[in-house]
Amino acid sequence: MSPRGVATPDVRERLFAAAERVVERDGPGALTSRAVTTEAGCAKGLLHTHFAGFDEFVAELVLDRFARTARRAGALSGLAGRGTVAGNLDAVVLALFDSGGPALSGLAMARPAASLRVREAFRAGAPGFAAIEEAVADYLRAERETGRVPRRVDPGTAALALVGTCHHLLMTSWPGTPDPRPAVRRLVAQLVDEQDGTQDAEQGGEQDAAQDDAQDGVRGS
After folding, report:
1. Is 174 helix (H, G, I), strand (E, B) or coil?
2. Counting beta carbons within 10 angstroms of the beta carbon of residue 13, is it exposed (0 to 12), middle (13 to 18) or buried (19 or more)?
3. Helix axis angle, 112-123 relative to 101-110, nearest 10°?
4. Mind listing the pLDDT tens digit for each residue in 47-56?
5. What is the distance between the alpha carbons of residues 15 and 83, in angstroms, rounded to a whole number?
6. What is the pTM assigned to this prediction?
7. What is the pLDDT of residues 146-171, one digit of tens each?
């Protein structure tokens, strides 16, 4: 435990990580300032020394985790042509669900003061869903140029579908509900990995059209 008057290095991250552990282990209802400082092994008043109150702490935790994911998303374009497209996307979007992400987001939305702080920060330019969506779209454009994403894929639309789905799942997933990550992985595969299926569908459509033409010919004879 840090004695009074002694600086605690990386105190924000220490408290944030402790809050995530509490939520993962005990659920969002167990998250209190005392639970956080106890989990972090620090003085009880440390949280209120660095944050104006518990609502500010929750809001800053949510904003910090969004910023972290946005930074990871911003590095996606540099991965074009490396690894797999699905794997690179998974590493970013699934990070939104790490460390109790859905419960933390739900907690912030359930606390009006914290929710207001988060919305105001996003309006002021703090990185959030919009920044992640833009980075994913940029990455898909880069991968489309390499040929690893089908030309039929519209990067902006695919990014909106993916990030919008993650937003929905974050707001509706709670401890005890099905793990949202398999659904996200399936969506990624649908958006970027079914080139062969698309070709099969196109070929099937051509065959159907040929059969229709043949039947028209028979009827007209």
Report:
1. coil
2. exposed
3. 100
4. 999 999 999 9
5. 34
6. 0.75
7. 999 999 999 999 999 999 998 888 87
